[in-house]
TrEMBL record, chain A:
<dbReference type="GO" id="GO:0008643">
    <property type="term" value="P:carbohydrate transport"/>
</dbReference>
<dbReference type="InterPro" id="IPR003593">
    <property type="entry name" value="AAA+_ATPase"/>
</dbReference>
<dbReference type="InterPro" id="IPR015855">
    <property type="entry name" value="ABC_transpr_MalK-like"/>
</dbReference>
<dbReference type="InterPro" id="IPR047641">
    <property type="entry name" value="ABC_transpr_MalK/UgpC-like"/>
</dbReference>
<dbReference type="GO" id="GO:0005524">
    <property type="term" value="F:ATP binding"/>
</dbReference>
<keyword id="KW-0067">ATP-binding</keyword>
<dbReference type="InterPro" id="IPR040582">
    <property type="entry name" value="OB_MalK-like"/>
</dbReference>
From TrEMBL, chain B:
<feature type="transmembrane region" description="Helical">
    <location>
        <begin position="166"/>
        <end position="189"/>
    </location>
</feature>
<feature type="compositionally biased region" description="Polar residues">
    <location>
        <begin position="1"/>
        <end position="10"/>
    </location>
</feature>
<feature type="transmembrane region" description="Helical">
    <location>
        <begin position="133"/>
        <end position="154"/>
    </location>
</feature>
<dbReference type="GO" id="GO:0055085">
    <property type="term" value="P:transmembrane transport"/>
</dbReference>
<protein>
    <submittedName>
        <fullName>Binding-protein-dependent transport system inner membrane protein</fullName>
    </submittedName>
</protein>
<dbReference type="Pfam" id="PF00528">
    <property type="entry name" value="BPD_transp_1"/>
</dbReference>
<feature type="transmembrane region" description="Helical">
    <location>
        <begin position="104"/>
        <end position="126"/>
    </location>
</feature>
UniProtKB/TrEMBL annotation, chain C:
<feature type="transmembrane region" description="Helical">
    <location>
        <begin position="20"/>
        <end position="43"/>
    </location>
</feature>
<dbReference type="Pfam" id="PF00528">
    <property type="entry name" value="BPD_transp_1"/>
</dbReference>
<feature type="transmembrane region" description="Helical">
    <location>
        <begin position="265"/>
        <end position="289"/>
    </location>
</feature>
<dbReference type="GO" id="GO:0005886">
    <property type="term" value="C:plasma membrane"/>
</dbReference>
<comment type="similarity">
    <text>Belongs to the binding-protein-dependent transport system permease family.</text>
</comment>
<feature type="transmembrane region" description="Helical">
    <location>
        <begin position="160"/>
        <end position="184"/>
    </location>
</feature>
<feature type="transmembrane region" description="Helical">
    <location>
        <begin position="76"/>
        <end position="98"/>
    </location>
</feature>
């Protein structure tokens, strides 16, 4: 099937700085793709290129099979929602919704029909005659989504749309965007630096760094099988614990941590037969304590150095084999600084990266 | 610039950064208000004297003190200054200069702001190659003494047949207003969120639509500031007026100077002061009506970047 | 207009370029073109009309041998230095006083700034009247009984410049106050709290902490006043006409008279080129401080 949005060999340089390097990305019809990365990774730049707000240095962008690399933003069949809402302050909500349609010289009854539909979907009918200044943050963002909606386009672009909202509203609107996607079934490309948004919304996530896609996959694969150390470190909070060790092969692969052999018989190798210096990574939430630790294939005794109670659970900082080790324990379990705790994990859930290229082995 | 003006407009009690709050009649307070009042007298005195002198008859001026209020108020100097005082061959008073100044100021303000606002908008939102080079030249140009450029401009205007014409003067004002106004508008439009501009482009608006439908309505306050700035500057201009117009078209400032500093005839100080006040009426009215916007205008014009 | 080719060259961003045409013309034709023209013709012997007969540096030699030009330069130097110092001091004083959480702040500010709304012509004429020895301040004080009181700066070749200075200061110091006030209000209030905790007296705080922090404001103000001073013309025309004698002549007036009165164009061109040099001397260090430093920082 033809992809909805196809990006080929896209390059963008600002002077001598390359912001996007030879990027290739195919986004399927109706797919929800999240571009995730820290600031400066090029995710917003990429979105702006797709929207036609930035001109690439090289490469091409196709939307629904048409080459739109140099087309005007309004001719690309896209709608866009911005972080700062970007509502026209001197126009009413209705004026905001209809501005683009009027520019396109659309007949009045068609405009009215579309506005009515968008207002209904987003439940903003009572706000139509108001000025943006009289709206709350959440209402403004709904109107901004409505502005994309009335354009009746196949591709929605979201540029960190929830970053300006407070935590609770953000969660509400996140659900609403997901619902909207289920209803409309159009392609959505969503830029964010928030991994929770990415994990909850995405069909696929593209994690970007320095203008390059580090990994493109479903949230589950990204979380469980990060392709490289950067992705492993970036996803998850608190981030993954890494041990500097050596993977010895051939017959029964194992690593040594704090003097103990850790057998990797249960680990699913991407590159079977690899041996050499590696980072052995294990997520804090995959470290168990108490009885579960006794049952785990690998066990250690560690001393709690710092305890951060967070209510439902407690985050414990300790160290193992000269590396800091973070893990979570149940919020009800009494832990104090200096306590000795028995921890364990299943090496099958670990992620191992070679030290030279930091790629998954 | 934004910071500066924001600070100026903040109603102060919560913020004024003076050393410490003090009681009403402390020694410090007396000193502060004392100095302020003395200085206020220095600033107010000329206005007071102008007004008093303009309301006296000539004999009273010769006899009394310039600080004394008139014993007998007369408006004759004002009437004479406005409608019958002579400059050169014309004896129809300052009213001629007044209307000339209106004819010069209105189109000059309009064109200079129209050109500069579009230019500032283009510079801040539609950056194109080389734009910054020209903008830099423009800003540096604001510091070049007019005297350096004035003669070639006379030649250029003569070539295109606008020398001595009001149109020529309007053109000159538009040119020399451009640096400061472009800077003013460029800074303003740069502070408009870029996403708004992007949203408009996604909505299919192009250069002029975005300017007219989105930016212009948003920028009303800055347009007011620009109008204040330009009206005052152009109304008060003397040099361009004297060089680029013929005596028939002299603006008020030039005519005023000719009236007061003419060497012929009896010096009518009361008429002179009435005339002086008359030519200050327009900028003073703007000043008192616009208040903080005027301050914002000069702060914007002065504190660059 | 869904073209598939990359828009290139001139037609890219065309509307913006059209909108910038007036700027480009102004920058190139007027600011660069006309300045260069004047400089070039200052090396000719143009008199009534521009001529292309090359005379090298003759005009400049003549200029610096002209008494009136030398007086103009000297006057401008004296006026300029005094004006800079006094305007900064007075402006800062006004701003600091107004910043003391006083009552009627707006009223005082309005009073100090209104002269700036008036033209130099009006300023010159009203101070000419006030300083008129027969009727003005001198007369008023004498009639109070001080028969020998003398205050006639405009009629004395040694003091006429100070008469102009009083008027210039009256006109400009309000603007300086405004800029300084903005600078003062821009200083973080915590600075005042910190110095209070450290027990530093207010005057010392101003001198050692606040003024150094306001360096950018001072520099901007300095540049603004200086470029205004170099252009000084209208005020002198209205107040003294350059007299008595040549005692209050200034370069801008010299240029004007050479070009439009004495029909000695090339002298005017040479003189105005010298004014340009003076401005450049002021602007370049400033531009370097203001913009040059930032690129590295």
């Amino acid at each position: 099937m033809q992809p909805s949005v196809s990006i080929q060999n896209l390059k963008l340089d600002f002077g001598s700085v390359s912001v996007l390097r030879d990027l290739n990305l195919d986004i399927g019809q109706g797919e929800f793709l999240v571009l995730l990365g820290s600031s400066g990774c090029g995710k917003s730049t990429l979105l702006n290129c797709i929207a036609g707000l930035l001109e690439p240095t090289e490469g091409s962008i196709h939307i629904k099979g048409q080459n739109v690399t140099w087309a005007e933003p309004s001719d690309r069949g896209i709608g866009m929602v911005f972080q700062s809402y970007a509502l026209y302050p001197q126009m009413t909500v209705e004026g905001n919704l209809t501005f683009g349609l009027k520019n396109a010289k659309m007949p009045k009854d068609e405009i009215a029909r579309r506005v009515a539909r968008a207002a209904e979907v987003l439940q903003i009918e009572p706000l139509l005659k108001r000025q943006p200044a009289a709206l709350s943050g959440g209402q403004r963002q709904r109107v901004a989504i409505g502005r994309a909606l009335v354009r009746d386009v196949d591709v929605f672009l979201f540029d960190e749309p929830l970053s300006n909202l407070d935590a609770k509203l953000r969660a509400d609107l996140r659900v609403e965007i997901k619902r909207l996607h289920q209803t409309l079934e159009n392609t959505m490309i969503y830029v964010t630096h928030d991994q929770v948004e990415a994990m909850t919304l995405a069909d696929r996530i593209a994690i970007m760094k320095g203008g390059v896609v580090m990994q493109l996959d479903t949230p589950s694969v990204i979380y469980n099988k990060p392709a490289n150390k950067y992705v492993a470190d970036f996803i998850g909070s608190p981030s993954m614990n890494f041990f500097d060790t050596r993977l010895a092969n051939p017959q029964s692969p194992k690593v040594v941590i704090a003097g103990k052999d850790v057998s990797l018989s249960g680990y699913e190798f991407t590159r079977p037969g690899f041996s050499g210096d590696v980072w052995f990574g294990i997520r804090p939430e995959h470290i168990v304590t108490g009885e579960a630790a006794d049952a785990a294939p690998t066990q250690f005794e560690v001393r709690a150095e710092l305890v951060e109670p967070m209510g439902a659970e407690t985050l414990v900082w300790s160290s193992l084999a000269g590396t800091s080790l973070r893990f979570r324990v149940d919020g009800q379990m009494p832990v104090a600084d200096g306590d000795l705790i028995r921890v364990g994990f299943d090496p099958a859930r670990a992620s191992i990266f070679d030290k030279a290229e930091e790629l998954r082995v | 610039m934004a910071d500066v003006t924001a600070n100026m407009q903040r109603p102060s009690p919560a913020h004024a950064s003076g050393p410490k709050p003090r009681r009403a009649f402390s020694r410090n307070n007396i000193v502060i208000y004392g100095i302020l009042v003395v200085l206020a007298v220095y600033y107010l005195l000329p206005f007071y004297v102008m007004l008093m002198t303009s309301l006296k008859g000539l004999p009273e001026i010769r006899m009394g003190s310039i600080f004394a209020p008139p014993m007998e108020i007369t408006f004759e100097p004002w009437v004479k200054a406005w409608s019958t005082v002579c400059t050169g061959l014309n004896c129809d008073g300052l009213s001629r200069g007044f209307w000339n100044s209106i004819k010069i100021t209105v189109p000059s303000v309009f064109f200079s702001i129209a050109v500069a606002s579009v230019n500032g908008y283009a510079l801040s939102m539609w950056r194109f190659k080389g734009a910054n080079v020209f903008f830099t030249i423009l800003i540096i140009g604001a510091f070049i003494p007019y005297q350096v450029m004035i003669y070639p401009i006379v030649i250029l205007l003569r070539e295109i047949g606008l020398y001595g014409d009001l149109g020529g003067l309007v053109l000159v004002h538009t040119i020399f207003g451009m640096p400061i106004l472009t800077l003013l508008f460029r800074n303003y439009f740069s502070s408009v969120p870029e996403e708004l501009f992007k949203a408009a482009r996604v909505d299919g608006a192009r250069f002029w639509t975005i300017y007219l439908k989105i930016m212009l309505p948003m920028a009303v306050p800055i347009f007011v500031v620009a109008v204040i700035l330009q009206t005052t500057a152009i109304w008060n201009d003397f040099l361009f007026g004297v060089i680029f117009t013929r005596p028939d078209n002299y603006p008020m400032t030039v005519q005023l100077n000719n009236i007061v500093n003419s060497v012929t005839g009896v010096k009518e100080y009361n008429v002179n002061m009435a005339a002086t006040l008359l030519s200050g009426v327009v900028p003073l009215t703007i000043y008192f009506l616009s208040g903080k916007l005027f301050v914002r205008g000069i702060a914007a014009g002065a504190v660059k970047g | 207009m869904s073209q598939s080719g990359k828009p290139t060259g001139l037609f890219k961003n065309l509307s913006a370029k059209i909108a910038a045409v007036p700027m480009v013309l102004t920058a190139l034709v007027v600011f660069v073109g006309c300045s260069v023209w004047t400089i070039v013709y200052s090396f000719t012997n143009s008199r009534l009309l521009p001529s292309t007969k090359w005379v090298g540096l003759d005009q400049y030699e003549r200029l610096w041998g002209t008494r009136r030009w030398l007086i103009s330069i000297e006057n401008l130097a004296i006026y300029g230095i005094l004006m800079l110092i006094l305007a900064l001091v007075l402006g800062f004083l006004l701003a600091a006083l107004i910043d003391q959480k006083i009552r009627f702040e707006d009223g005082f500010r309005t009073i100090f700034l209104y002269p700036y709304a008036l033209s130099f012509i009006v300023t010159g004429l009203v101070w000419q009247w006030l300083l008129n020895p027969e009727f003005g301040i001198q007369h008023a004080v004498r009639s109070l009984g001080f028969e020998t009181f003398t205050f006639d700066p405009l009629y004395n070749t040694n003091t006429v410049l100070y008469g102009v200075l009083i008027a210039g200061l009256w006109h400009t110091s309000g603007l300086v106050m405004c800029l300084m006030l903005a600078g003062l209000r821009g200083i973080d209030e915590d600075v005042w709290k910190a110095t209070k905790i450290d027990g530093i007296p207010a005057w010392k705080t101003y001198l050692l902490v606040v003024i150094p922090m306001m360096r950018p404001v001072f520099i901007t103000t300095l540049v603004l006043i200086t470029s205004a001073i170099i252009k000084l013309y209208d005020l002198v025309i209205a107040q003294t006409g350059g007299g008595p004698g040549l005692a209050s002549e200034v370069p801008a007036k010299f240029v004007f008279d050479m070009m439009f009165v004495s029909q000695n164009l090339a002298q005017g061109f040479a003189a105005s080129s010298m004014m340009l040099v003076a401005v450049i001397v002021v602007i370049i260090p400033w531009a370097y401080l203001e913009f040059g430093g930032k690129k590295h920082g």
